[in-house]
Design a protein that fits this description.
Blueprint lengths: L2 E5 L8 H14 L4 E5 L5 H5 L11 H5 L5 H4 L1 E3 L4 E4 L5 H7 L9 H7 L7 E5 L6 H9 L2 E6 L5 H18 L6 E9 L4 H13 L4 E7 L2 H5 L7 H4 L4 H17 L1 H9 L8
Parallel strand pairs: 1-5, 1-6, 2-4, 2-5, 6-7, 7-8
Antiparallel strand pairs: 3-4
Helix pairs in contact: 1-12, 6-7
Bound molecules: adenosine-5'-diphosphate (ADP) and magnesium ion.
Amino acid sequence: MAKVFAITNQKGGVGKTTTSVNLAASLAATKRRVLMIDIDPQGNATMGAGVDKNLQQHTVYDVLAGDVSMAEAIVYSPEGQFSVLAANSDLTAAEVQLLDVDNRERRLEEAISTVADTFDYILIDCPPSLNMLTVNALTACDGVIIPMQCEYYALEGLSSLKETIDTVQSALNPRLKIEGILRTMYDPRMSLTGEVSAQLTQHFPLQLYHTCIPRNVRLAEAPSFGVPILAYDKASKGALAYLALAGELIKRCEPERYNKKSQKKPAVAPE
Ligand code: ADP
Ligand code: MG
């Protein structure tokens, strides 16, 4: 059964889409079966995975509208080695149409349940706003991954996001939690970075990822070639950071695998 995570933050430009694409590719590189769902009408995650948002026969819009099944709409990113449910500007209409349908908050959850057995991880790239699409993502997931920059207003944004999560948790999705908080575009030379990091460690000791994603120009360049960083410059700092993040996430999500490993007998038996 897939673990489903929404990559979310109501602020734009914090690295949600970069994280969705590159975490998906990094998890796929460790042989996990991954689906990335784009629910931002801008379709940046779709394009970043090398899937042309304007050439798709079906997108997440058709799935939410109930016109096609998940299985029919999912495509594959050869560059990323993961599956993609694409989005484009059609999805703007869904925001409005969804206000009028039964079970409007659970459309995505229902769709995901039809394919959850065929993936290990499902990542949902959210738009930078709290609309009906984001509510669908929060209702469908096991937890949220929050990318954030270590800026002055970041903590304020985080507490309002926390309130939203609490509201959705009590009204729609009891299993919803903060899976992880990810520091992005990280620059340790800035003094504010250290202060914000210290506060995050204090308030979210279990959720804050040890891995920080550095500011790295290769990460910003890769989308213009329609490839994840691993297919663009796999030795870059950005690529290594997203691989480390995938490792940290797997360690948290699959503890049985790690425990089994540590119980293994030594290769050479003692006398
Ligand atoms: P969001 O989805 O939250 O709006 P994006 O992932 O699209 O944010 O990132 C915003 C911009 O910053 C994009 O141009 C992206 O290429 C760039 N960017 C994201 N992460 C990094 C990073 N670690 N280093 C350098 N540039 C980055
Ligand atoms: Mg985005």
